[in-house]
Design a protein that fits this description.
This protein is an alpha+beta fold and 172 residues long. The chain has a single domain, classed as Aminopeptidase (3-Layer(aba) Sandwich). Helices cover 34% and strands 31% of the residues. It contains five helices and seven strands, in the order βαααβββαβαββ. The strands form two sheets. It has a four-stranded antiparallel beta sheet, sandwiched between helices. α1 packs antiparallel against α2.
Length: 172
């Protein structure tokens, strides 16, 4: 497994992972047009390329001998929905489900922590769906603490998310 910055040619692979993980995680009982349209409009190679070229976003991919199996995106300038935390958000940490348990998520997360430290941050935050028990267990095991709640919005619908934060001084 290699961690590296993405290349423009990785945009379609990252978009495919976004669709795979997002649909597999959040649409447990079937896919309807509302969610399918959202995923297909949001998770496009063009949008990924735009994120890769935006200096407010730091992205690393995990690559195995066959291709990309996960990635992390850290976004700066993101006001935490809970007071007292930095404006540095781990906006996406996705690993293909068949690669869970191999340490990929932990390595990507540690690289994200190091990036935040290098930028002088003392904390980082993220939000995850309140029903995403595997992700919640992972983040708590890595030392995050739940600090509040927010809602992920698609159009006029809101979905409860827990907000987790990590004090970067907690790890060396």
């Amino acid at each position: 497994m290699t961690l590296r910055p993405p290349k423009t040619s990785d945009a379609s692979s990252i978009a495919a992972i976004l669709i795979e993980v997002w649909i597999g995680t959040y649409l447990k009982r079937g896919v309807n047009a509302f969610f399918a349209d959202y995923a297909l409009q949001e998770f496009t190679p063009a949008k990924i390329e735009a994120l890769m070229s935006d200096p407010a976003h730091f992205i690393l991919v995990s690559e195995n001998e066959e291709g990309i199996d996960g990635f992390v995106r850290v976004s700066s300038g993101c006001k935490a929905p809970v007071e007292g935390w930095s404006d540095m958000e781990i906006s996406t940490l996705y690993v293909q489900p068949r690669h869970h348990g191999k340490g990929i998520g932990k390595r990507l997360l540690n690289a994200a922590f190091q990036y935040c430290r290098d930028k002088g941050m003392t904390s980082v935050w993220l939000a995850t769906n309140a029903e995403n028990a595997p992700a919640i267990a992972f983040y708590l095991a890595q030392g995050f603490e739940q600090v509040g709640e927010t809602h992920f919005r698609i159009d006029d619908k809101g979905y409860l998310n827990n907000v987790y934060a990590f004090r970067l001084s907690d790890r060396d």
